[in-house]
């Protein structure tokens, strides 16, 4: 029975351009996952959007002397263009968190938490500008380091001695906007009572955690063991989802609620849910099918800095909102990708723009290499020399070359109807499908790629062992027998690479005249499906190598 699969992709923050680390970390894994599930007949809803709120956006706006709204529009447009036009990521909806639908749904979550008794009011201290008559986010405050006396240091960490500065420890705090002195003053906020929710979350993690990578599970369990702490859900800021003041009883209303906003950690994850509702409205679909009942699978993709928000807080928010809602199954978190061993950093010039590399090499090459080095269990590094080595030595020499040799040898030939895939090839193909399915289900993309490459290696071995190019001239019968096996592998590869290398898979479809590599054969029926197909293959006159070698001397990076 086919499943309904929700794929939630982390919401990129719109205060800077995305780099290749984002692609390897969560964008590409999510897209492979979506394409795979569609190819096996599951109904997929892949959603995400721009994360629009919070101080990094207002800081960026101040820096560029434009409004936060303009910052959002600018980057949202850039990211949407990148995802749609350049990367061809298969989102069903890509929206933003300042959409009225999202604001309304976030407020609904807030009210449910308040009504359920999971929010309480408490005071914290925050920098306050008496002249501006408003509270200032930490990032707008500078002062003197209490450790080394450096002036104009940030409020949370000294730029000079590197020591962390606790909230309120900064000496002579000043606004870095106006230069005027600021006070450290009490302010009321709502807090999520995580300790109260912890038992329910623990129960969830006990079961769901089995689907996660070990390190993800361990880190989550570590947080639970230490005990969840209450967490502020509102802050003194004017750029964010407003507190639904009209819907809160007087005795539960905090002071100056109108000048406070809901924290971005609380609202961004709600985007997975609000986007599902918006998708249903736009497409006349049923969002309920993806959130209630049996036969559902929910995947979430993100970088490691987002872990607890998805393994602990988001499930907790969902439970309180409606206990019938489906909770995250697979939380797929990657470590970081570095560039030649260094962390990506705009200021230090360690950058690699996605557009640049995709325009130069094409999507498939980039998808292949990033999957091969995907930081699934530890940080990994994008290394130029390694890219050449792996593309030329593996993608071209192993996979591309096998396909090209086979189809070139077969061009203009026809197989007899009686030819069938033999036992050895059957088991090689079945094995590749079985492993690929398992690895794709559990988001182990490096292993999935390995199992595809194992199959092409098997094909290459057959070509060499039987010297097929000689057989073609000397022994028609044996040539056809071996060619049957090779074509069987070619067709299997056409399916298997579809989620990972959609463009290559589609070219292969053109070269063979076969349609539909994006719909995999039924599980266990691979050979029955492929056997008749190989006899329909007519190699196109336009046949070219599926992938071509990179020439290092052409490198402009
Ligand atoms: Zn210092």
From TrEMBL:
Residues 5-407 form the Methionyl/Leucyl tRNA synthetase domain. It catalyses: tRNA(Met) + L-methionine + ATP = L-methionyl-tRNA(Met) + AMP + diphosphate. It comes from the Bacteria. InterPro entries: aa-tRNA-synth_I_CS, Met-tRNA_ligase_1, Met-tRNA_synth, Methionyl/Leucyl_tRNA_Synth, MetRS_core, MetRS_Zn, Rossmann-like_a/b/a_fold, tRNAsynth_Ia_anticodon-bd. The keyword Cell cycle does not apply. Gene3D superfamilies: HUPs, Isoleucyl-tRNA Synthetase, Domain 1, Methionyl-tRNA synthetase, Zn-domain. It is found in: Cytoplasm. Keywords: Aminoacyl-tRNA synthetase, ATP-binding, Cytoplasm, Ligase, Nucleotide-binding, Protein biosynthesis. Pfam families: tRNA-synt_1g (PF09334). Transmembrane segments: none annotated. One of its GO terms (cellular component) is cytosol. Its EC number is 6.1.1.10. One of its GO terms (molecular function) is methionine-tRNA ligase activity. GO terms for biological process: methionyl-tRNA aminoacylation. Its main location: cytoplasm. It is an enzyme of class 6 (ligase). Is required not only for elongation of protein synthesis but also for the initiation of all mRNA translation through initiator tRNA(fMet) aminoacylation. Belongs to the class-I aminoacyl-tRNA synthetase family. MetG type 1 subfamily. This is Methionine--tRNA ligase. The lineage of its organism: Bacteria, Katanobacteria.
């Amino acid at each position: 029975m086919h499943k309904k699969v929700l794929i939630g992709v982390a919401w990129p923050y719109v205060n800077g351009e995305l780099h290749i680390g984002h692609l390897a970390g969560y964008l590409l894994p999510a897209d492979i996952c979506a394409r795979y599930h569609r190819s096996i007949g599951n109904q997929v809803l892949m959603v995400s959007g721009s994360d629009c709120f919070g101080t990094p956006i207002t800081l960026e706006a101040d820096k560029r002397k434009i409004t936060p709204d303009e910052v959002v529009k600018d980057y949202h447009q850039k990211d949407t263009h990148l995802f749609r036009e350049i990367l061809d990521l298969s989102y069903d909806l890509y929206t933003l968190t300042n959409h009225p639908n999202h604001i309304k749904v976030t407020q609904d979550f807030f009210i449910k938490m308040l009504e359920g008794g999971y929010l309480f009011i408490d005071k914290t201290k925050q920098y306050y500008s008496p002249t501006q008559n408003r509270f200032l986010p930490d990032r707008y405050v500078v002062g003197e380091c209490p450790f080394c006396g450096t002036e104009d240091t940030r409020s949370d960490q000294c730029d000079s001695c590197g020591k962390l500065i606790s909230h309120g420890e900064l000496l002579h705090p000043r606004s870095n906007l106006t230069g005027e002195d600021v006070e450290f003053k009490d302010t009321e906020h709502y807090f999520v009572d995580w300790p109260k929710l912890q038992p329910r979350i623990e129960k969830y993690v006990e079961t769901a955690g089995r689907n996660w990578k070990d390190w993800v599970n361990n880190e989550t369990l570590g947080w639970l063991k230490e005990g969840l702490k209450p967490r502020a859900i509102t802050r003194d800021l004017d750029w964010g989802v407003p507190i639904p003041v009209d819907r809160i009883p007087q005795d539960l209303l905090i002071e100056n609620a109108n000048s406070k906003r809901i924290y971005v950690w609380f609202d961004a994850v709600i985007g997975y849910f609000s986007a599902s509702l918006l998708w249903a409205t736009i497409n006349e679909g049923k969002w309920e099918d993806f959130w209630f009942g049996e036969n559902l699978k929910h995947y979430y993709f993100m970088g490691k800095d987002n872990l607890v928000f998805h393994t602990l807080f988001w499930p907790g928010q969902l439970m309180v909102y409606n206990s019938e809602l489906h909770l995250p199954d697979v939380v797929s978190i990657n470590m970081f990708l570095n560039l030649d061993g260094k962390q990506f950093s705009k200021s230090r010039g360690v950058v690699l723009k996605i557009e640049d590399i995709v325009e130069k090499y094409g999507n498939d090459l980039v998808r292949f290499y990033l999957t091969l080095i995907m930081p699934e269990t530890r940080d990994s590094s994008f290394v130029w020399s390694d890219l050449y080595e792996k593309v030329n030595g593996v993608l071209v020499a192993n996979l591309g070359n096998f396909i090209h040799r086979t189809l070139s040898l077969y061009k203009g030939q026809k197989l007899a109807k009686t030819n069938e895939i033999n036992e050895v090839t059957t088991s090689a193909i079945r094995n590749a499908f079985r492993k690929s399915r398992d690895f794709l289900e559990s988001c182990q993309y490096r292993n999935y790629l390995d199992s595809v490459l194992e199959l092409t290696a098997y094909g290459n071995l057959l070509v060499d062992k039987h010297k097929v190019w000689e057989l073609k001239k000397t022994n028609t019968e044996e040539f056809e027998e071996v060619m049957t096996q090779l074509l069987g592998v070619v067709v299997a590869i056409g399916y298997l690479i579809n989620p990972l290398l959609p463009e290559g898979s589609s070219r292969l479809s053109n070269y063979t005249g076969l349609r539909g590599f994006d719909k995999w054969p039924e599980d266990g029926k691979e050979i029955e499906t492929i056997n008749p197909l190989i006899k329909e293959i007519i190699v196109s006159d336009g046949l070219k190598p599926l992938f071509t070698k990179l020439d290092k001397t052409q490198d402009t990076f």
